[in-house]
Write a structure and sequence with these properties.
mainly alpha; 195 residues; elongated; disordered N terminus; single chain; two-stranded antiparallel ribbon
């Protein structure tokens, strides 16, 4: 699996384009507050898979995954899910599996978005907008891809909720938000579902 540097490339691009101009931001219905579930879990899933890939690339840590009784789930992922969250190894394996499946499904959407982003960037050599010029509104295609991506992520969050049950999912959600939430932060985001 190829490691992505931009787990939420669509949201961040939309944020970057609109943040430069409050008039454009108002037109696009920017929402400030807690990170939406789709963005939060996309980031969490990417974080878990990236941790696992880094550990698997290290022969000493990769071999240690066998010690946890879950081949393929690295010590770092184990630490985040089991040790910090108080979850069983089976629940950790389930979460990691859901993360992998989700990222595999959103990868083609991210590739499509990257093509749209590159097309827009081609109009701005060096990534610079001329002084006094308005930043472009995100193309509708990009907003549509973001909505598709969010739908996919939320489908896997719902799958995780159903497999764990509401009470265990709530415990996991609270633990992840307390352990990783500050790293994801509070953002000003374009409400792509308002169109």
């Amino acid at each position: 699996m190829r490691k992505s540097c931009f787990p939420t490339v669509l949201s961040f691009l939309v944020l970057a384009i609109t943040a430069a101009n409050s008039q454009v931001s108002q037109k696009l219905n920017v929402v400030r507050g807690p990170v939406p579930d789709a963005m939060f879990y996309s980031t969490v899933f990417q974080h878990l898979v990236t941790l696992n890939q880094a550990d698997q690339a290290n022969p000493r840590l990769g071999a240690a995954s066998q010690a946890f009784g879950a081949p393929g789930v690295s010590p770092s992922v184990h630490l985040v899910i089991v040790d910090r969250s108080g979850f069983s190894q089976a629940e950790a394996t389930n979460l990691f599996s859901v993360a992998q499946k989700c990222l595999a499904e959103i990868s083609p959407v991210d590739q499509q978005a990257k093509a749209v982003i590159n097309e827009v960037r081609a109009h701005y050599p060096g990534g610079r907008i001329l002084p006094g010029a308005q930043p472009p509104a995100p193309p509708e295609q990009l907003l549509s891809l973001q909505r598709s991506r969010d739908t996919i992520v939320l489908k896997y969050v719902d799958q995780l909720r159903k497999s764990l049950g509401d009470a265990r999912f709530s415990t996991l959600d609270n633990s992840l938000r307390s352990n990783l939430g500050s790293k994801v932060g509070t953002l000003g985001l374009v409400n792509t579902h308002a169109h």
